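Dear colleague,

As promised, here are the two records you asked about, laid out in our usual form so they can be pasted straight into your sheet.

NAME FIELD: protein one
SEQUENCE, THEN STRUCTURE:
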Amino acid sequence: MVYVAFEPGTTAGAQVGCFTEAPATACFGGYNGGLVFDCQNIPTNTTYQLTATFRAPQTPGTYTALIYIHDFQSPQPWSEYDPNNNRVTLTYQVG
């Protein structure tokens, strides 16, 4: 089971929803007010586009959101070159 998670760095931006198009089979609330897609599996050499919608914070400033892939069949159910590159931090500005 592979989850793709979107976790806002602040609770000022509330989750609105997400679209469950293939490969995602479900979308639900995650940690810290985030959203999680259940993708079941992600085949080698594939690329997917997932959409998660959040309401922007009302206070101007710089914010972050963590986007990461998490597997629930440890130890590593897949083989990959670098298992430590499964997260990225998105920085955005509200002005």
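NAME FIELD: protein two
SEQUENCE, THEN STRUCTURE:
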Amino acid sequence: MILPVGIYQFKTLSGSKYVLEITENKCFLQRFNQNFELRRDTEKVEVQRIDSLTVGESAVFFLEPLGEGVGTFRFTTEVVELVVLSRKKE
């Protein structure tokens, strides 16, 4: 999945709020949820690939290694809202 350079926010059915920042060369994801904690919550984690980000479906990201290994998949609950906070002007 390819999204334009910009900053996006999406919310999931579990109540998590994510901020996705896409630059020319890198992509970062931050997750916020006071009720359910995951490893490295609130930290900017580098996204190596966005496999899915569609309202009505689970989002799927392949992230930088969060421990040992080559990377980590992050699957969310259903995305209920996706908004553009800012986008690079052409």
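A couple of things worth noting about protein two: Residues 16 and 85 are 17 Å apart (CA to CA). The chain has a mean pLDDT of 90.

Best,
R.
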